[in-house]
Structure formats: structure tokens, C-alpha cells
Amino acid sequence: MKLVFFHFSMQGGGAERTISLLSSYLINMENEVYIVTMDDQKSFYPLPNQIKHVKLGVNHNSQNIFRAMFNNFHSLLVIHDCFSDIRPDVVISFQPNTIFLSWLAKWGVGYKVIGSERTNPFYNQSGFWNRAKKYIAMLCDGYVFQTNGVKKYYSGQIQSVGIVLQNGILSEKFSKNDLAWDDRSNVCAVGRMDEGKCFEDILQAFAIVHKQFPNVKLDLYGDGPDKQKLMIKATELGFLDVVRFHGRCQTIFEEYSKHKIFIMASRAEGFPNVLLEAMASGCACVVADCDFGPSELITNGQNGFLFSVHDWETLASYVCFLLEKDELCQQLAQNAKSVRQTNNIEIIGAAFWDYLKQQ
């Protein structure tokens, strides 16, 4: 089968990581796989040589409505020409705008369009594309949902042709990076530093943790518009020296494995890749029970702890409890590793491939 993953960019992010993993799996099923991106940048994630990455370079800024109309029309022609040359059987798109463009560009080519929801559609209602996504989904021949909760946002028509498929991981990479428990220390958090990820709640919680455990460090990985504000907040709270801002990290799997505890305070998620990766890395996870994803990965008290969104006092109490009870902390971390089996890309990829063959 000839398959195309069509996305805006491959410059990092959960959707992009999923594309890299699924495409790498599908190329081994004797498929011809393309990744077509609207920008002109190479992939942040490594891709097998057999995968053809076509960089269209049509992500132009529009200074006015007339320029926007011209750019959109030009982009559509370029996309159509690209798909006409490839002649795919299926185009898989992970964004409302690329789903719509995939549908518009299919005249004379005749491929199937598979869409996917990668965010929390109940939470993110800003902007035209997010408001229109449930209607754009009706243009698709199939749809992939990351969680059962997100599936409920869409019409019965889309649900009937869709599949719930959690994200996959390359399990052997996590096994390879395993460190002995006694070689681990400290607490980490990973993600884009913006309002929705609630890193300020993490800092508030760590202020409590720091009073009881002054030698414990908090490592923050990621970047975003709130990074400078968070650094100022850490200074105001008086522990900038123990809160370490590392920025974006291409060796994040190795960094997870150096830590005993992972925390996440997001107010909303589509499906939290960072949580899945932290669990696979053998971290004890303390996570906000937001919509959607955490409660489908964590059974409270068995393979991690859940707390209510913005309840940073409970977050702090769980972290302190785990720091005091190292044996329990290690047991939760060990139990969390079960995602290496349930979310192995070999299992997730096989389910996705079976779904594609039914289209």
C-alpha cells in the first residue's frame, strides 16, 4: 500500500513523534511510505532512509486577506501536484487544516483520507480550525482517536468509522536506557511551557517539597512562551538554584531514566506522550487527572498517583510521600513500566495497519 502522512511540520511534538513511529513501523510492512510536510525543515525525529520526506515549503505568512487567499490557493495546487505524483492509497492527516487540504486536493487522485484528533477538542475551541474540526472530520473516510473520552466529542457517523488507538512507544529504547534505582534521584517535568501545561502549579508544589527536602532538585525540560515567566517565579519563590531549566532535549529518554519521580500538572491533554514516556522510563508519576489520557494510563495508587487539576498542595503531598517512602516509590515506578508491553509500537502499529487495510 502507498501511504502518506500529511502534516504541517516534523519539528518536534507529540503528533510528530507518533508519525515518526507509525511510519517507521508501516515501512516494515512492505508499504511505500511518505511524510509530506508544508514547511521546508528536516524532521526533528530520526526517520528510516526508506521513508520519503517531501518538504513542500508552502507555509507562507500572509500580510493581508488577499495575500492569504493567494497563498492558500498556491498551497493547494502544490499539495495536489505532490499527491498526483505520489498517487497514494491513503493520506493520514493529524490537523483540521491538513485534513481539509487533503480532502480538497484529492480530485483526480482518489485516495482515502484518514483524520486523527491529537488535542483535547473540548478544551481548545479557539480559532476557526478548532471550531470547525468536528465538521471537517465528516469529510474523512476514517478517524483515529487517542482516548475514549475524545471520541465522544464527535458525531456518531465519525465514531462508527473510527478507532481508539493510544500512542505507541519504541519499548526497546526505554529498556536500553534503564538505570538502577539507586542511580536515580530528583524530580522532573517535561513539556511545552505554556498556560495549558500549568508549570506554575509545579513550581508552587515544589516550594512545599523544597522545605521538607532541600537537597532534592527539580529538572524542567522544554521551552515555550512562559519559560521566562517561570524562571522569574522560581526566583521569587527563592529556589532558582534547585529548579534547573534545561530547554528542549533530544536525549529526553535518557533524562527520564535519571529521575525517580515525574510530575505533570496539565489542565487538558489530547493524550500525554510525556506521561507515557515517563512511565516507560520507570518513573513514579504524579499527574493531574485532566481530560484526557492520565486516567486511561494510571490506576491511582498502583502505577502512579492522580490529583485534581490545580491542586498543587496535593501534588506536593504525593511527591513528599514518595520521597519519604522510597520502596513504594520504586514499586509504583516498576508497575508503570507495563506500558512497555501495552503501548509497544509493535502492538499499536499492528492495530493501525489492520485498520488501514479495512479502508
* The number of domains: 2
What structural class do you assign from the helix and strand content? Answer: alpha/beta
Largest sheet, spatial ordering of strands:
3-2-1-4-5-6-7
Radius of gyration: 21 Å
What is the rounded distance between the termini?
11 Å
Strand tally is 13
β-strand percent reads 15-25%
CATH topology of the largest domain: Rossmann fold
Mean pLDDT: 93
Describe the structure.
The chain contains 16 helices and 13 strands. The protein is α/β, with parallel strands linked by helices. The chain has 2 domains: 2-168 and 344-357, Rossmann fold (3-Layer(aba) Sandwich); 171-342, 3-Layer(aba) Sandwich (Rossmann fold), CATH 3.40.50. The strands form 2 sheets. Strands 3-2-1-4-5-6-7 form a 7-stranded parallel sheet, with helices on both faces. Helix 3 crosses helix 4. The chain is globular. The N and C termini lie close together (11 Å). The mean pLDDT is 93.
Chain-wise SSE layout:
Blueprint lengths: L1 E6 L6 H14 L4 E6 L14 E4 L9 H22 L3 E4 L2 H9 L7 E6 L10 H9 L5 E4 L2 H4 L4 H5 L1 E3 L6 H6 L10 E4 L8 H14 L5 E4 L5 H11 L5 E5 L4 H5 L4 E4 L8 H8 L3 E5 L5 H4 L7 E3 L4 H13 L1 H11 L2 H4 L2 H13 L2
Parallel strand pairs: 1-2, 1-4, 2-3, 4-5, 5-6, 6-7, 8-9, 8-11, 9-10, 11-12, 12-13
Helix pairs in contact: 1-16, 3-4, 8-9, 8-13
